[in-house]
Specification:
Elements lengths: L15 H14 L22 E7 L8 E6 L11 E7 L7 E6 L5 E4 L8 E8 L4 E3 L3 E4 L11 H22 L10 H4 L1 H11 L3 E6 L6 H20 L3 E5 L2 H17 L11 E3 L4 H15 L3 E7 L3 H11 L3 E6 L5 H7 L2 E4 L2 H10 L2 H32 L5 H10 L1
Parallel strand pairs: 9-10, 9-12, 10-11, 12-13, 13-14
Antiparallel strand pairs: 1-2, 2-5, 3-4, 3-6, 6-7, 6-8
Helix pairs in contact: 2-11, 4-5, 5-6, 5-10, 7-8, 10-11
């Protein structure tokens, strides 16, 4: 059929596309109208496998209070399902377990450093995936006990025995009359000259043993030196003045000086008032000693022991009155002041060697010589270690060999 324009006109079927469009619109606007579907049930998660092979032993080479726990990793560890391992401890094999530690996945060792000594203990290890924990079988009993000797310190034992043997050998050699060489100490070589100068000038010698107490090693070394100086002043009949900053040090030094005078047969020349207590206050002591220097104008001043901020004031005052000054201290911060202000200075360990150097006592000489030989051996070991490390870095010897030597040392 054609129209008035001459084109044919087709008749559309009623209801086809229109119904489909209307249905889709209804489904979009009203999804609840869709037929309900049953949700799929989640797949059941397999339980995580517990660790096995739990073993607990007393920690070796320790001082007690420690147990080493080890175990085989859970098979699920490699799949990334393990969150952590938790270690439990109890005094009973079945109950009472309490957590004592936590380690990350992939770790199969733990050291319980809070284990009581001498108590039978049981351990369990639990693996956790974040939601639940699965326990291993318990292991025990095991006791934490201290060991008498650390087997990794055998080299220290050998070195200590070598040190003792060296001292005993040199003490015996000194007692047998063998001449042991000790390096010359310039300050002590001039001790006789200083005492002789004071005798010729008719002026006293001032000995200052620092401000520390008798428990200080430097003070003990100063007391030993004082004894030798007192012998020389007794022989030369020279006055020795010793102002003290500590009453106990004063009592000790009085006895030392008195004994020194007695050894040379000059007990009558000993004057107890020349070894006296001044004050405990640091700068009050400095003021008192400075006043003695200015009034008495000693020919020689000896500074031996531990000194602090007063060192420069004392040394400068002594230099201003024209005294010969010899200092000895192990106070590193005060050494520059003594070096610049005094005529001679004993540095560090020279203070400790001074008493042996002056007295030539066999026990002191042997001890000093043994210590020197031990220090030489330690220095040689350091040099050999540096050479070995250098050769290993150059590829001449393997690093494993050097590492074993260093670890054993």
């Amino acid at each position: 059929m054609r129209g008035a324009t001459g084109f044919s006109r087709r008749t559309r079927p009623v209801g086809g596309p229109t119904i489909v469009t209307a249905t889709l619109a209804a489904l979009l606007l009203f999804p609840a109208a869709l037929p309900a579907q049953e949700p799929e049930a989640p797949a059941p998660v397999a339980a995580i496998a517990p660790p096995a092979g739990v073993l607990a032993v007393d920690s070796p080479d320790d001082r007690g209070g420690s147990v080493d726990v080890s175990w085989d990793l859970s098979p699920d560890d490699a799949e990334g399902r393990v969150l952590c391992y938790r270690i439990y401890r109890s005094a009973h094999p079945d109950t009472g377990f309490a957590p004592v530690g936590l380690v990350a996945p992939g770790v199969s060792r733990f050291r319980d450093s809070a284990a009581p000594d001498g108590t039978p203990l049981h351990y369990r290890v639990a693996v956790s995936d974040g939601e639940r924990e699965v326990f291993s079988a318990s292991f025990g009993p095991v006791e934490a006990l201290p060991q008498w000797f650390h087997r990794g310190r055998i080299t220290v034992l050998i070195a200590s025995l070598g040190f003792v043997v060296a001292i005993v050998y040199f003490v015996r050699a000194a007692k047998a009359g063998k001449d042991l060489f000790i390096r010359r100490l310039a300050g002590l070589d001039h001790m006789d000259d200083a005492v002789g100068r004071a005798t010729e000038m008719g002026k006293p010698i001032l000995f200052i043993s620092g401000l520390s107490t008798i428990s200080d090693v430097a003070t003990i070394a100063a007391v030993n030196i004082l004894g030798e100086v007192a012998k020389k002043t007794a022989e030369y009949n020279t006055r020795l003045i010793v102002p003290c900053a500590d009453p106990i040090v004063m009592a000790v030094e009085q006895e030392v000086v008195k004994e020194a005078y007695a050894k040379v047969g000059r007990v009558d020349a000993y004057n107890e008032d020349d070894v006296f207590y001044l004050t405990r206050s640091q700068f009050a002591y400095v003021a008192g000693v400075s006043g003695i220097m200015v009034r008495q104008r000693p020919a020689t001043i000896l500074y031996m022991g531990m000194f602090y901020a007063e060192s420069l004031v004392l040394a400068e005052t002594g230099a201003s009155v024209g005294s010969i000054q010899i200092a000895g201290t192990d106070a590193v911060t005060q050494l520059p002041f003594f070096i610049t202000s005094c005529d001679y200075t004993l540095i560090g360990e020279e203070l400790y060697a001074a008493s042996a150097y002056l007295s030539r006592e066999p026990v002191l000489l042997g001890g000093l010589k043994g210590q020197d030989m031990t220090k030489a051996a330690i220095g040689l070991a350091i040099v050999l270690g540096a050479i070995s490390a250098t050769l290993a870095a150059l590829g001449v010897i393997p690093w494993d060999f050097v590492a074993r030597v260093l670890v054993n040392a």
